[in-house]
Structures are given as structure tokens and as C-alpha cells.
Amino acid sequence: MKVLTELLKEVTCKKHCILQGMMITGIQYDSRKVELGNLFVAVKGFQSDGHQYIRQALDNGAIAIMISDESYCSNEYPWILVEDSRLALAQISNAYYEHPSEKLKLIGVTGTNGKTTTTNLICHIIEAQGEKTGLIGTIHNRIGDRVLEGSRTTPESLELQQLFAQMVEEGIRYAVMEVSSHALELQRVACCDFDVAVFTNLTQDHLDYHVTMENYCKAKTILFHMLGANGEKAGLQKTAVINIDDPWANQFMVASNVPVVTYSMQKDASWKAEQVQVGAEGVSYIVDEMPVQLHLTGNFNVYNSLAALAAGEALGFPVEEVIRALEQVGGIAGRFQTVKEAKDYSVIVDYAHTPDGLENVISTAQAFAKGRVITVFGCGGDRDRTKRPLMGEMAAKLSDYCVVTSDNPRTENPEQILQDILPGVEKHMQPETYHVEVDRRKAIHYAVQMAQPGDVVLLAGKGHENYQDVNGVKHHFDDYEVAQEAIAEKQN
User: Fold this and answer.
1) Distance of alpha carbon 219 from alpha carbon 216, whole angstroms
2) Pairing, β 473-476 against β 467-470
3) What pLDDT digit, counting tens, does each position of 247-257 carry?
4) For the CA atoms of 217, 220, 225, 227, what is the dihedral angle to 10 degrees?
5) Distance between CA 224 and CA 76 in Å, rounded?
């Protein structure tokens, strides 16, 4: 239990009506999860307003209510009025769990593509030094060897501070996390004490929320503004790691008020990859006169590994040991992952769900395909509609054959999503070089059945996901499993 008035010293409050010395047993923003003695934080969301659930929270045992709408100030219950309940939730969660990120060396990775691979590579580098790590990201959250399911790339601030506190409790000293633009704009990572921030790249995504690329970029740069907010920890110099080949790099350089380390394949940089060789089994390059031989392939993984290398060096690890650790990584679930059962043709599962992501993975497949590249892809529902024809255009321009299908239609009509994609496909393909199949399972079977020796079948969009979201219901669906099933059927 904690004294609420003490915690409020760290919260931006307008006014409050609570008893001096009042104790709380915990914090909740979901009224259904409130327990006796909790503080309930009423957050205005996109779908619902937490203020409407104050009565339910009180019935479940809430002892006080944090609000951002003055009309809910009442003599019925103790209340705290704040300007921004999302920021206040982050502030009070950080205070309640005793500032756990200050006790960790915290590395944040942001960008459109490459966050998952880069965070996993950084974890591998740290673990190769004999340290346990905490990982927060798209595939799952992890504390040491213990895997915890996550529902979004970056958790809400309360869950985030809880995770950090568990890491500290278990003796973990390094935490690596993916930081989404939504998390930055919605204050989920407010009060987090980052030591290293990594920028991978910025391409079109999430414009249903951000509206413009400028807004999207501005949200991402918040992470770099945050770097200088607190002093150094244990002599570790706070560092910004930036991909200077990206057209938006300058905005991140400007936002960084700490030393900047750059990486590149094209320009002079702190870390520049040269003599790059891409093959089916991996990629090799030279950096600072040192050879690197990865078991991951594609130019995009050159960038991901350079970002991880720069972060590892910023954390104080010897570069030779960082490279050795990178060379040991075998692969990451759903990230250009080969389905082993395919024999004289290849089947690859990848999370690519943006035009740029598709360009990267299809170009990589084309670099080693002896036959055709057959791309199976779709677009998610209830998300940025403007990228759908762009996805279609990119897939059609670079692939030899396309199978257009469903991704996660969510609450949208999947047929309509396909109609939004097709104008882009039709710009570059004749009807005989693409096929439309709304059922993703049938689409994968169709692509595998048509594969001939030397062909590469690329299943893009869902990667590690093991579900398909249809009308708000998540049905079990795993591209890797369905590919295995399709390969077995073809062999029989």
C-alpha cells in the first residue's frame, strides 16, 4: 500500500479532494479489474470514456477516482482532477512502482519497420555478455526466460511500469523495448528513463491515426526528445542511434539533445556497411574493417544489425564481441522466416505490412530466387486505407505473381479491402499474373500448389501472428502452420 498524497507529488494535478494520508492498494484504468482500495484512473479513449465507468469502479472497491473532466467532481467520492489522464496515469504508475526504469539500462527502438528484429538482436548482444534481459515488443514481452503475452507493441503505461518493476525485482539490469508512435503520442512511455534510443526508418503507416507523415514523424521524435530528460546512469552516456540513409533522419538528429551515433549503407557514418553480399542463407558485409556474417538475409537486416551493433557499442560492449553475438543469431519468428518443409522451392513468412516493408522482402526474395517470386498479401481492416493501393502496386511491380487475400479484416468487409488493393495491382499486372482469393487459407494453398522448382512463395503481412481478427473475434490462424499444411498436401 502507498500513501496517495505522496504519490500525487509527482502528478500534474489541477486540484483534488482526498483525505490526507489516504492509502491505495493499487492503480487501475479498467473498471472491471478494480479491487478493494484501488485508485481508478478515468481515461478518455477512442471507443469509450472511462468517466462513464466510475460507478462500476466504486462498486468494485475503488477508494478514489482520478478524472480529467471537472463535471465528475463529486461529494460522493474522493477525486483528483488532472489536465491529461493519460499523462497522469504514467506519472502515478511510475511513482507507485518506485521509478523502475531508472534502475534499468533502457533501450528504446522506434521506426516503421525493423523494430522487432532490432530489439531481438540487441537482447542477444546483451545476453552474450552474460546478462539477463527484459524485452517488450510486438511478438511478446519477456522477463529473462519467462515469456508473457502482450496485446500491443508498447503496453499502456501502468502495465509498462509493472513490467519494469518485475524486471528490477528479478535482478535484470537491461530492458529493450519497441516504442510505437501511438505509445509516444498517447503518453504510454512518459516517465520512462531511456538510455539509448534507436531510429530504424520512417515509411507510410498508421496515417488513419496520424493523418500526415509529418505528424507521424513528430510522434516518433518524442523518444529522442526524452533522452536528455534525466542525467546519466552509472556513467553510461545517453546516446541516439540514427539511420542516416532514411529521408527523415534529420528530424531525429535535431530532436536529439545527446550524442548521436549514425549508421548507413550509403553515406559516411559512425558505422557503415560496405562490400555487402546478400544470399539465400544470410548476408555478409564489412564494417570498420571488420567482417560480419549474418544468418539473416536482406539489406533490411544489414540495417537492423547495424542499429543493434551501434546500440551495443553505446552500452559499452566491445565491438568484436557485439559482432560475434550478431553472427550467432539464427532467425526471428515471422521475420523472413523460412518454412523448412519446402524442398525444391522456398516458402517464407514475413510480417511486412507496409509498402516499404513489402519492397524490402520481395526485393530480397528476388535476389536469390532461381524461379518466380509469388507474393501472398493483403491489408488490415480499420487501418490506413490510403496504403492499400500502394501495397498492391509495390507487390505487383516487384513480384512475378501475386495472390491478393485477407489479412486481419477486423470490422471491415474483406471483399471491400481487396477492392481497395486491386487498382494498385492492375497498374503493373495483367489478369493472368494475379489471383484474388478472400480466404487466406485457400490463398496460401493456391500459392504453394502453383510453386515450381526454384520459386519463392512469400507470405506477407502476418508474420508471427497466430490469429486472424474477423469482426472483433480472433480465430486461430498461423501462416507458418498453414504453409506447412499446404506443403504436406502438395507432397502427397
Assistant:
1) 5
2) antiparallel
3) 999 999 999 99
4) -150
5) 43
